[in-house]
Amino acid sequence: MAQIVSKPQVPDMSSHDGFDATKISQHDVGLKVFREPPDVDDVEVDVVAVHGIGASPNTTWTHKETNVNWLSNDTMLPAALPNARIMAFGYNSLWFGEHAVRQTVEGIATALLVELSDMRIGFPRRPVIFIGHCFGGLVIQQAYTMAALHTTDWPNMDNCITGIVFLGTPHQGIADNSNLSTQGKIYAAIAQANLQIQADALKSMTHHQEVLVNTVHNFARKVSTSVPRTQLYCFYEQKTSKVGRIAGLDISPEFIVDEVSSSLPGSSKQGLDLDHFHMNKYLDSEDSSYKRVKAQILKMSKQAVETTEEGRAVKLSPKSSPRPQIPTLAAPIAKEANFAPRGGVLEAIEAKFRIKVHVALYGGSGNGKTHIAVEYAHKYHQEHLGSNIYWVNCASSEQFELSYKRISENLQLSKEACEANGVVEAVRHYLKKDSGASWLMVLDGLEDEEKLVATDSGKPLLDFMPTNPHARVLITTRSKRLATRMVRETTQYIIPVNPLRKNDASHILFGKVSSNPAKMKWVEDLTEALGGSAGALTLALAFRQKSEKRFGTKKYLETITAQLSKVSGVTTAWQLLHGLLKSDHPETADLMLLVCALDVQCIPSILFERHQLYDQIPTLEAYGVVEPQVDRRLFYITPLFRDLARTWLAKHSDERASTEELALYAVLRNYNPETAETLLPCALAVMAFQTTSTQSKRDMATLLFRVSQHCMQLGRYRKAIQCLERCLKLREADQDSDKKQALVEETKQAMAQAVNLLSQPGSGTARSQPKAKGAQVSGSLGSAKEQLQDCESSDAQWQHRNTVRKASDTAALRLMHGQKDGTGNTVELYERVLGWCQEKHGANHVDTARTQYNLAIAHGAQGQYDEAEDLFRSALGVLQSQIKPEKPDLALEVLFLKVLGSLGSMYCSQGRLDEAEAAFRVVLPGQLAKLGLNHPETLVTRHDVALLLQQRGNLDTVAEELREVLLAQSRLLEANDPGTLRTARSIALNHQLKGKQEEAKNMYTTVLRAQTNALGETHRDTVETGVRLEELLVEMKK
C-alpha cells in the first residue's frame, strides 16, 4: 500500500508530464494560430485542439524529448494539412495551488465559441475539425451542443463541425476507485497540504457525475441528427499512468481513462501505446501513434471539404442547393457557383425587360453569355414564383426543333395537336394563347438565322417565336447585327458581354474579390494573358483544382505568357488542361475529343456507353469540359472548349481521323428508330466527317441509310434523297463488300420510294403523312387494360416479354391511379410478373428486385405490411449483392436507396420510428450525395423524415422543412403533382397539431380540391385528405 509522507508537502506538478502547469499566463489563454496558409483564400478547414486540465497551453502539445509540437512543426500536421488553419485553444486549467481557478465545462465551452466565432468572421461556413485531450473533449462536446441548441447565438457553427478526434476523453468518467478522483489519495494529499482547491473541472469527470452525464448525453443526441453525420473517432490509452507524482506519492500506475470510458457508442475507436498524459504529444513524424491520429484527421479533412462543397452547412432543410436547378424545363447547364457580377449585368437585363419583351446578349466566344442567361433564369424564377423557363438551343434547325419538342412534352401538348400543325407551331400557338402566364424563353447560341428553317415547311424558325405581353425572350449570340435584328432594331435593348476585368475574374477563380494584393496582381496578369475570356478563366480554375498544386500558380502564369508570341493564352490554357486530363485519365481525354468533334451544343446521354456515363463523364464534369442538364439527359459542351478542341484536331490529322471514326461508330451504334429523333443532330454532325478507311466508309453508308429512313417517316423526302444519294455512292464504290449488290439494291429501292413520295401532292411535310395506329400509346388505365387483354388473347401463359411488360405497365398505372378497390388486382399482376422474372432471370437479378419493390408497394397500399416488409428486404438483399464498390453503378445505388426509403416510410406509417430513423440515416445522406438536395426522390425522403420528426413532437422544425420541400416540389414538378399535394397535406396536419385549426382547414380544403381535380374523387390520396378534413371539422366543433 502506498505511504503518504508524514509531513505535508507542496505537490510539484512540474515534475510530471501530464499536469505540467504551475502558473498559466493570460497571454497563453485563448485561441492561438499555430499555422495558417499565406493566402487566406487557400484555407479549406480549421483544426482546433483543446487541452485537458492541469496542462500548460504552451507545452501540452509538445514532446519533451524532441521539443516537437505536432500542431506547429513543419514536418508534422502542417505538412499533412497544408491547406488547414491549425489552432489551439488555451484556458486556465489549474485546479489546485495558489493560482487555481474555478472552471466549468460550460464556461470554457462558451469562451471557445466566442473566440472561434470571431476568428471565422468572413468564413462562417468553413469546416471545423476538433481535437480534444481528456477534459478538452468534454469542452468540445459542450460547445457543439450549445451551438446546435442556440443557432442564433452561434450561427453556422454546429453545421460546420465536421469531425472530432477524442484523445483519452472520459465519456463515461474516471473510475470511482481512481487515485485521481475526488475520493482518491492524490486529492487527499493536496488537501492535507492546505493548498487552494478548485476541483469543479475534476469533479466533472467523475463517474456518474451529473454534469458529465448530461454533457455526453446531450452531445450524443444532437450529433446523431447531423446530416451528413459528424465524424467521431476515439483514441484510448494502452499504458498505465504514474498519477501519484502529482502529489509526490509513490503509488502503483493506473489507467486514468480506460477503453470503456473513452469510447462513445456508434463511433470508431483505436488504442495508442501511450499513457494518458502522453496521448497528445508525439516524438516526430515517424511516431506510430502520431501516424494513427494523423490518418483520422486527414480522413475527416477530406470528407469535410467534399461535403461542404455539396452544401453541408445546412441540415435537413437547406435554404439553397449548391447547384441550383431551374424547374419546368432545365437550362443546359447549372448555375455557376462563382458567378461574376459584371457590373450589375443581371440588373441591366431586368431593367430592359421591364420595357421590352426581347433582350439580347452579344459578345465573343467564351465571354460567358450562356452563364449569364442561366444566372438570370434562376433569378427570374425565384422572383416570379410559378413562372416557367423554356430553353431553346439555336445551334441548328434540328437542335432548335428538338428543344421545342421537349417544351411540348413539358406542356403536355396532345400528340394530335403536334401532328396537325407541327411541334414548333403547336408550342408557339400554346404560349401565345396562354396570355396570363409568366415565362422566360432563352434562345441560346443564335449564330446563323439562315440555317434555322423548319425541316417540315421550310419556314424560318425564328418566325415561330411566341409573343406574349407577360413573356420575356432572352437571346444570346456572337453577332451584334443579329442581336440588333432580334430586338427589332432597337439597339438600347442589346447588352454587350465584354471580356472580364480583374475583379470579375477573381469572382470566377476564388468566388470573391480576393483581399490579398499579391493574388489580385496574379489575377490581373492572368486575365490579361487570357484576353479576359470567362471560358478561359474557367479552364484555369479547373486546371488549378485538378492539378492538385503540382503546378503552382506562378508557374501556370509563366507558361501562359511564355507562349503568347506563338499562340493565344486561351489556346495554351486549353492545351495545359488537355495535357493534364490525358496524363491522369487517357481514356477520358479521348472521350473529350470525341464529344468536341461533334459540332453540336448538347450531347444526349444515350450516345454514351454505361461505363462512360458513370466513370468518364463525371471526370469531364470535374474538368469543366461538359456540364449536365438537371435530369442528365443532355450534356452541354461550351462553344469555346469545343472550338479549341476542334482547332487542335485540325492540326493533328491522325488524332482527328481516329476521333472521327470513334464518333461515327458511337452514333451508328446507338442510332435506331427509338433514338433517331434525339440523336439526329449528332448524326448530322457526323455526316460532315470525311471518311478514309474502308470500315468508316461502310459505317457512314449505314448511318446515311438509317437517317434517310427517319427522314422518310417525318416526310422530309428531299433530305432523305440527299442521304440516299451519298449512301449509294459509298456502297457502289465498296469493291470488297460481300453484300455490295444487296446493299446497292436496297439503297436504290429506298431512293425510288422517296422520289415517288416526293412527287405526290402535299408531300414534303410531316403533317401530310397518315398517323400510325400503333404509335399512340395511351397513358390511361383503360387503354393499358385493353392492350394487356390483346396480348393475353394470344399469350395466355405469359411466355412473351411484351405481355409481361404490358402487365407491369397496367399494374403501375393502377398504383398511380390510387384506386382503393384496384390494389388487389395490382398485387395479382405483380405476382405474375415476379414469377416470370424469377423464371427468366433468376432470384438474384435487378429486374426481380425491381418487381419485388413494386409488389411491396402494392401490398403496403392494402395494409399488408408483413408481406410488404419481406419483399422490401428481399429486394434490398438482391440489390446489395449486385452493388460492387470496385465498379460503382449509380442506377443500382439510387434504386437501393429508393427501396430502403420506401421501407422507412412504411415503418414510419406503422409507428416503428426507430427502425424508420435507421433507414433514413442511410437513405438521406446517400441521396444528397448521389442525386442532390432537390432531386424528386430526395424530396420524398426529406418529406418522410419531416413526418418522422413530427411524430416525435418537433413541430416547428418540421414546419420549416415541409415548406422548403413544398417550394422545391412546386418548382421541379407541378402544382398538382401527387407528391406536391401530399406535402401540402402534411403542412395542413402540422397546422392542426399546433392548434392552428383555421389554417389547417383552409389548407386541407385547398389540397382536397386540387386532388379531386387532378387525381379524382376515388384516389386514395383524395380519400385520405377528405377523412382528415372531416376529423378536423369534428374537432373544431368540440
Brief overview:
With 1038 residues, the chain is α/β, with parallel strands linked by helices. The chain has 6 domains: 30-308, Alpha/Beta hydrolase fold, catalytic domain (Rossmann fold, 3-Layer(aba) Sandwich); 345-498, Rossmann fold, CATH 3.40.50.300; 517-582, no CATH class; 585-677, no CATH class; 691-757, Up-down Bundle (Methane Monooxygenase Hydroxylase, Chain G, domain 1), CATH 1.20.58; 796-882, Tetratricopeptide repeat domain (Serine Threonine Protein Phosphatase 5, Tetratricopeptide repeat, Alpha Horseshoe).
Structural summary, described in words:
- By secondary structure, the protein is α/β, with parallel strands linked by helices.
- The protein folds into 6 domains: 30-308, Rossmann fold, CATH 3.40.50; 345-498, P-loop containing nucleotide triphosphate hydrolases (Rossmann fold, 3-Layer(aba) Sandwich); 517-582, no CATH class; 585-677, no CATH class; 691-757, Methane Monooxygenase Hydroxylase, Chain G, domain 1 (Up-down Bundle), CATH 1.20.58; 796-882, Serine Threonine Protein Phosphatase 5, Tetratricopeptide repeat.
- Helices cover 53% and strands 8% of the residues.
- The strands form 4 sheets. The chain has a 7-stranded mixed sheet, sandwiched between helices. Strands 11-12-13-10-14 form a 5-stranded parallel sheet, with helices on both faces. Strands 15-17-16 form a 3-stranded antiparallel sheet.
- Helix 17 (534-546) packs parallel to helix 19 (569-584), helix 20 (586-597) crosses helix 23 (653-670) and helix 23 runs antiparallel to helix 24 (676-686).
- It is globular, with a radius of gyration of 34 Å.
- The model is unreliable at 1-19, 96-100, 181-199, 309-330, 762-785, 790-800 and 820-824 (pLDDT under 50).
- Pfam families: NB-ARC, TPR_10, TPR_12, TPR_8.
